[in-house]
Amino acid sequence: MLTMMRDVIVVQDPQGQQREFGVEALLEMNDQSYVLLVNEDDTLLMKVEGEGEHQELVGIPEPYVLESLLDAYSIAVEAAPAEGEE
Helix (H, G, I), strand (E, B), or coil: what is residue 54? Predict the structure, then answer.
């Protein structure tokens, strides 16, 4: 499942720096939620853990999971044109 979004969130890295990212998409795979975040410098793909107000984003250490998610996202984008395109 792919849900397109345009929310903005602030991510704090381990060094305490805060950076704004746009939420590009929410992806579901194997009963897990993942979020694709973008800003002008970086693209992050992170796993959503927890529920409700107690959610946090964590890294994805398994390269095969990252590849599968990015492949699924690419297929979904190709199948559904961006808003305003037809």
Answer: helix
**Interval 24-69: pLDDT, tens:** 888 888 899 999 999 988 888 999 999 888 888 888 888 888 888 8
Report how many domains make up the chain.
1
Tell whether 8 is covered by a domain. yes
- C-alpha–C-alpha distance, residues 62 and 75, integer Å: 21
85 neighbors 70 (Cβ within 8 angstroms):
no
Q: What is the 3-state secondary structure (H, E, C) of 8-31?
A: EEEEECCCCCEEEEEEEEEEEECC
